Amino acid sequence: MTETTQGVFGGLTEVSTSDGRAIRVDPTYPALRVSDGINTVVLPHPESGYAGREFVMSADETHLIVWVYSGQNEVGYELFELNPLRHVTSVPYVHGVGNVPVISGDGRTVAMAWAGNPGLFAGEVDTDDDDLLIDVCEAHWCTVQVLEIDTGLLTECDVHVQLGAGSSVESDTDHYPEDLAFVDGGLHVRGDWGVVAKVPLPLPNIVLIDGPNASI
Q1: Whether 169 and 206 share a structural domain
Q2: Taking the model in full, what pTM does it have?
């Protein structure tokens, strides 16, 4: 596999297979055309628009992800087989911000994470006159989604954070999921404050981790 340019979201902006096929994407409305120089797949244009894309290829070059984003805090992807180029499934836009998906080492599973509440807004909770939390509370942060390629089964797990009493009802900084990876039969995803969410497989409904100010 030839990797030429690293994208800002962790994927590749250009990619070629080891047999020399360069993958191209033409997003000209009203279609999204993906080609390897031999075959071309024509898909509907993303409904909410198209602002860019990055590639992820499995280590054995059997699968390719074209990850797309709308420019309006929406991400999704198209999954392809590569030998020959064939569309497998679409994962439509979800609302949030995150990096490109990852493919498991055995090439059978895809995972993606995005922050739907990057500001860690605690919602309707009791606060003091300075908008600081009176009690410890729990807030949604991000979602981890898993696709089983063979069956098409798509599941999700919400990652919540614990916020300490005395912390702000909403963070001054946005926090996005980082370093998503398949580890020890599950998934790890890290918050930029240093805490790693260890998400088992199959996915539970919720995983709770310490937030940036969990022990205030």
Answers
A1: yes
A2: 0.92
Q: How far apart are CA 170 and CA 160, in angstroms?
A: 14
Cβ within 8 Å of residue 206, ≥6 positions away: 157, 158, 159, 160
Per DSSP, the residues of 98-113 read: ----EE-TTSSEEEEE
17 and 68, same domain (yes or no): yes
In this structure, the chain runs to a length of 216
- Name the domain boundary from 95, 125, 159: 95
Tell me which residue range forms the domain holding 74: 1-95
Parallel, antiparallel or unpaired: strands 85-95 and 2-6: unpaired
Instruction: Please report, for residues 19, 21, 78, 149, 169, the alpha-carbon distance to residue 39 in angstroms, rounded to integers and kept in the order given.
Output: 14, 10, 16, 21, 52
| Pair 91, 108 in one domain | no
Tally of domains in the chain: 2
Q: How many CB atoms lie within 10 A of CB 32?
A: 21
Are 125 and 206 in a shared domain? yes
The pLDDT tens digits along the chain (216 residues) read 454 578 889 999 999 999 999 999 999 999 999 999 999 999 999 989 999 999 999 999 999 999 999 999 999 999 999 999 999 999 999 999 999 999 999 999 999 999 999 998 887 677 786 777 877 889 999 999 999 999 999 999 999 999 988 888 678 899 999 999 999 999 999 999 999 999 999 999 999 999 997 554
Same structural domain for residues 63 and 133?
no
